[in-house]
């Protein structure tokens, strides 16, 4: 019985974070007009710059504050055995979310879950920011009717994830081609020395003012 209740406390902690992950992203991240807040500002910048993340020390502070707040509350509510388990599971899920989200932007997925998570999340980034608010799972998108199945994700070239394109060609790597397309010109190639016209010169030999 004790083992079952320990497991229940851990699952409750995991599900509490999962629910908050969805709500924080959807409400604080994407409804700043109704709820102006610092997370919303950071999240807007994350969308605008693609690979921007708030400083790790800020996130660590949030994790510690959450643990300091939740552990005594959980101990008070369900006791000294189940309370800490609940609080630790909650904070572990929060830290996992931060790691999973950052790696989705910085590294290609190498499991079916990793690849699905990236398509789900980048559909939110580049196709419809009103959909797919869950990052680590689509559960709450299903519950609240915001799930959209990603097809091909159209990624603006200047916001592309580091892992998406082959640096040699500037084009989407073969493995990702069925799921992602790059939008916009590859500026480095468009202005390559071969194609770039020679700068105009004034008759006295000085470069013309651009
Ligand atoms: Zn993101
Ligand atoms: Zn978002």
Question: Can you tag this structure with a few keywords?
Answer:
single chain; 210 residues; mainly alpha; two-stranded parallel ribbon; 6 helices; disordered C terminus; binds zinc ion
What is shown here, in short?
55% of the residues lie in helices and 4% in strands. With 210 residues, it is mainly alpha-helical.
Describe this structure in words.
- The chain has 210 residues and is mainly α.
- It has one domain.
- The protein is 55% helix and 4% strand.
- The chain is built from 6 helices and 2 strands.
- It has helices spanning 2-29, 38-49, 56-106, 112-126, 139-144, 187-190; strands at residues 153-156, 180-183.
- The chain has a two-stranded parallel ribbon with strand order 1-2.
- The longest helix has 51 residues, at 56-106.
- The protein is elongated.
- Residues 190-210 have low confidence and may be disordered.
- One zinc ion binds at residues 46, 101, 105, 121, 125.
Task: Spell out the blueprint of helices and strands.
Blueprint: H1 2-29, H2 38-49, H3 56-106, H4 112-126, H5 139-144, E1 153-156, E2 180-183, H6 187-190
Parallel strand pairs: 1-2
Radius of gyration computed on alpha carbons: 23 Å
Helix content: 55-70%
> Based on the structure, what is the oligomeric state of the protein chains?
single chain
Average pLDDT:
86
**Uncertain parts:** 190-210
Largest sheet: 2 strands, parallel
Number of strand segments: 2
- Strand arrangement in the largest pleated sheet: 1-2
Order of helices and strands: HHHHHEEH
Number of domains: 1
Ions, cofactors and other bound molecules: zinc ion
N-to-C span: 78 Å
> Structural class given helices, strands, pairing?
mainly alpha
User: What proportion of the residues form beta strands (DSSP E)?
Assistant: under 5%
- The number of helical runs is 6
- Overall 3D geometry? elongated
């Amino acid at each position: 019985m004790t083992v079952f209740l320990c497991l229940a406390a851990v699952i409750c902690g995991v599900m509490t974070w999962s629910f908050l992950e969805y709500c924080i992203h959807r409400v604080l991240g994407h409804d700043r007009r109704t709820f102006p807040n610092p997370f919303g500002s950071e999240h807007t910048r994350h969308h605008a710059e693609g690979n921007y993340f708030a400083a790790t020390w800020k996130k660590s502070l949030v994790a510690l504050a959450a643990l300091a707040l939740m552990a005594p509350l959980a101990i008070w509510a369900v006791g000294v055995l189940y309370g800490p388990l609940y609080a630790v599971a909650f904070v572990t899920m929060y830290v996992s979310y931060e790691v999973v989200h950052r790696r989705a932007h910085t590294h290609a997925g190498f499991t079916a879950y990793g690849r699905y998570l990236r398509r789900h999340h980048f559909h939110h980034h580049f196709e419809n920011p009103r959909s797919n608010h869950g990052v680590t799972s689509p559960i709450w998108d299903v519950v609240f009717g915001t799930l959209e199945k990603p097809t091909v994700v159209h990624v603006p070239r200047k916001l592309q994830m580091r892992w998406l394109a082959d640096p040699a060609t500037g084009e989407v790597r073969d493995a990702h081609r069925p799921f992602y397309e790059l939008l916009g010109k590859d500026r480095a190639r468009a202005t390559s020395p071969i194609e770039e016209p020679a700068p105009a010169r004034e008759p006295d030999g000085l470069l013309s003012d651009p």
